[in-house]
Write a structure and sequence with these properties.
- It is built from 17 helices and 17 strands.
- It has about 500 residues and is of the alpha/beta class.
- The chain has 2 domains: about 270 residues, Glycogen Phosphorylase B (Rossmann fold, 3-Layer(aba) Sandwich), CATH 3.40.50.2000; about 190 residues, 3-Layer(aba) Sandwich (Rossmann fold), CATH 3.40.50.
- The strands form 3 sheets. Strands 3-4-5-2-1-6-7-10-11 form a 9-stranded mixed sheet, with helices on both faces.
- α3 crosses α6 and α9 crosses α12.
- The mean pLDDT is about 95.
């Protein structure tokens, strides 16, 4: 099967969150299974160009229709860890992708609407007719709209579209200028409740809604998240649209790239280890303490690794730091905040604990350093307000770092409580809590810390249970192929 992924991220060249990991990991799994896969991305100026091999011009003069005129583009091709990637470089005064950042610009709606139009124009002009176009989140929500309203009439009748929702908090709500810009000029037609009109603001357009309405199949990144967006406020206003299109929705849990996240082969940690050599994990614990000037003592190391964003449950993260230190633990945090107020809050927290022998707060993000933290810590907290899938807890499992998570979204699909899960003990792999409050996370931390101190043999068994879990791309890869086959035959 011939599959083209259209996305705003792909690790490791353009990565902000889990989306980049998913695009790369799924593409590789599909290739391993014998499919032809290509990825189309914006050519941001902040790409990791050192991760692109053989970058060269693939299409010299691509003129993309825009506001009744056209914008000149060049399309580049290069390999990213073996994946075939095309990068769209937009010239001219708009300067869409030369902003030294991926997101957060005042005209993000125009930047990514243009990217959608440019990706399809490139496919048309270069005679690409994949079986499936797989696009992701609001940034590519216009792809199925443009395909079925414009490009099918130009000859692109073969492709079917799978659309994956990674996070419904961001939907690409915009105004009618996007229709004029992208060439979707029938305003009354698109400003309709059954198409792109936002469910709450009749004068606004919703690009994610457009993707849901026009795609042949829509997936979420975990089964639990699908239930949550159908039956709770986590749909952020898209509930009616989701229910109308319930027949083409499915939840597929993301996979984890074990070529990148595997303590047996990890080149970023001082001592590699696995189930047969679990004691070597503690060499990494010593290295982590040395790196952050933590004292050498009989204490567990608890960590948090990830974005400092409200979605991630930051009040509970801050509370967990105080609680863990009071309960005889050490705590390490690695994260960065885009929001200035959140950044200031954690800078104050860092100053407060700056000289504490059992705490280190590292503000910023360093992929290589995160590997050492996963390998050196014994517990990792993921107290998210909501979590469509989450990769942090899966990485923790692989590294024998016991996850302590709030039972929401993909966290509930992957972590099974050591004391209360309705599963055999060998399938229990962490600690969960339900209530989003201090008492909730304390209840889980209390049990985890208590087991570490009082029953170290059982804590080690919990670590081993997690390391045996298989959250590779093997199973989700097959699930996506089943979806592709289903929509291809329709």
């Amino acid at each position: 099967m011939y599959i083209i992924q259209i996305a705003s991220e792909c690790a490791p060249v353009a990565k902000v969150g889990g989306l980049g990991d998913v695009v790369f990991g799924l593409s590789r799994e599909l290739e391993i299974r014998g499919n032809a896969v290509e990825i189309i991305l914006p050519k941001y100026d902040c790409l990791r160009y050192d991760k692109i091999f053989g970058l060269q011009v693939a299409y010299q003069d691509l003129w993309v229709p825009w506001y009744g005129g056209a914008i000149h583009c060049t399309v580049f091709f290069g390999f990213v860890d073996g994946r075939k990637c095309f990068f769209i470089d937009a010239h001219g005064e708009h300067n869409f992708f030369n902003r030294r950042t991926f997101y957060g610009q005042h005209d993000d709606d125009q930047r990514f609407a243009f990217f959608c139009r440019a990706a399809l124009e490139f496919m048309l002009k270069s005679n690409k007719h994949p079986d499936v176009i797989h696009c992701h989140d609001w940034q590519t929500g216009l792809v199925p709209v443009l395909l079925y309203e414009i490009y099918q009439q130009l000859g692109m009748r073969h492709p079917r579209v799978c659309y994956t929702l990674h996070n419904l908090q961001h939907q690409g709500v915009t105004r009618e200028h996007i229709l004029r810009a992208a060439g979707l000029n029938r305003h009354a037609y698109f400003y309709h409740q059954d198409r792109l009109q936002d469910n709450f603001n009749s004068s606004a357009l919703n690009l994610m809604k457009g993707g849901i309405v026009y795609a042949n199949f829509v997936t979420t990144v975990s089964p639990r998240y699908l239930d949550e967006i159908l039956y709770s406020a986590q749909n952020y206003g898209l509930g009616h649209t989701l229910h109308v299109h319930r027949g083409k929705l499915g939840g597929i849990l993301n996979g984890l790239d074990y070529d990148v996240w595997n303590p047996e082969t990890d080149r970023h940690i001082p001592r590699r280890y696995g189930l047969e050599h679990l004691d070597d994990k503690f060499v990494n614990k010593a290295a982590l303490r040395s790196r952050f000037w933590l004292r050498d003592a009989l204490r567990p190391v608890v960590c948090y690794v990830g974005r400092l964003d409200q979605q991630k449950g930051l009040p509970l993260v801050a509370h967990a730091i105080h609680y863990c230190l009071n309960q005889g633990c050490q705590f390490v945090l690695l994260g960065t905040a885009a929001d200035g107020r959140i950044a200031h809050q954690f800078q104050e927290l860092k100053r407060h604990y700056n000289d504490h022998p059992d705490c280190h707060i590292e503000l910023g993000f360093n992929e290589e350093l995160s590997h050492l933290i996963y390998a050196g810590a014994e517990m990792i907290i993921v107290p998210s307000l909501f979590e469509p899938c989450g990769l942090t807890q899966m990485i923790g499992l692989k590294y024998g770092t016991v996850p302590i998570v709030r039972a929401t979204g993909g966290l509930a699909d992957t972590i099974f409580d050591a004391d209360y899960a309705p599963k055999p003990y060998h399938e229990r792999n962490g600690y969960t809590f339900n209530d989003f409050n201090n008492a909730g996370i304390e209840s889980a931390l209390h049990r985890a810390i208590g087991l570490w101190y009082s029953y170290p043999r059982y804590f080690r068994e919990l670590m081993e249970n997690g390391m045996r879990c298989d959250y590779s791309w093997n199973h989700p890869g097959q699930h996506y192929l089943n979806v592709y086959e289903y929509i291809r035959d329709k």
